[in-house]
Amino acid sequence: MTIRPILIHPDPRLKKICAPVAQINGEMRNLAGDMIATMHKAPGIGLAAPQVGILKRLIVMDCSAKEEEPAPVALFNPKVVWTSEAENTYEEGCLSIPDMYEEITRPAEVTVQFLDVDGKEREEQYTGLWATCVQHEIDHLNGKLFIDYLSKIKRTIITNKMKKLKKEMARE
Q1: 144-148: long-range contacts (C-beta < 8 A, 24 or more apart)?
Q2: Is-contact 46 61, C-beta < 8 A?
Q3: How confident is the model over 53-88, as pLDDT tens digits?
């Protein structure tokens, strides 16, 4: 497994709509493995392919509790097909927007259709943190960041902080 660099906002690749994965082959499974390793090392609970510079519809997640055995999943071409009327609010963060957290309200439960690592069509219902995470990661595939749910002024403040962070990182 290769740990891949994670893009930091603002990066134009993070605002692009990703192409479907046409075929789940060894290259795509390796990418999923690299993304899981990258996500765990970061550490994070979700990662979308555009965050590592690959504009394909692939996300990985692992929302298992720290005391539990890791339970990473890879979802190719995920699509939300049902959302509950009930909502949850979580303080969200993003590996592409380090150390910034804001409360975001989303549907509490969702059903997602996707292809698994074997290319089999699956449908899974997610609740709680898993539901928030899957929606956050699918947003990435559509060029949307969690800060896009915030007011323009909050978005601008966070974006300016990220620009400053990128300048500092470039000097290192």
Answers
A1: 145/9, 145/14, 145/15, 145/94, 145/96, 145/97, 146/92, 146/93, 146/94, 146/97, 146/102, 146/104, 147/9, 147/94, 147/97, 147/100, 147/102
A2: yes
A3: 999 999 999 999 888 898 999 999 999 999 999 999
Lookup: tokens for 120:
């089999």
Is 31 within 8 Å of 74 (Cβ atoms)?
no
3-state helix, strand, coil in the chain (%, to 5): 35, 30, 30
Task: Give the catalytic positions in this structure.
Answer: 137
DSSP letter assigned to residue 17 = B
Alpha-carbon distance 117 to 137, whole Å?
17
Return the residue matching tokens 């996500």: 39
Selection from 30, 26, 22, 24 nearest residue 4 by Cα: 30
Instruction: Return the amino acid letter for 117.
Output: V
Kindly provide the b/e burial profile for residues 93-111, where b requires at least 16 CB atoms within 10 angstroms of the residue's own CB: bbbbbbebebebebbbbbb
Taking only the tens place, the pLDDT of each residue in 20-55 is: 999 999 999 999 999 999 999 999 999 999 999 999
Decide: 74 and 116 in contact? Cβ < 8 Å.
yes
Q: How far is CA 44 from the centre of its chain?
A: 9
The architecture in CATH of the region 12-171 reads Alpha-Beta Complex (3.90)
Q: Where are the domains of the chain?
A: 12-171
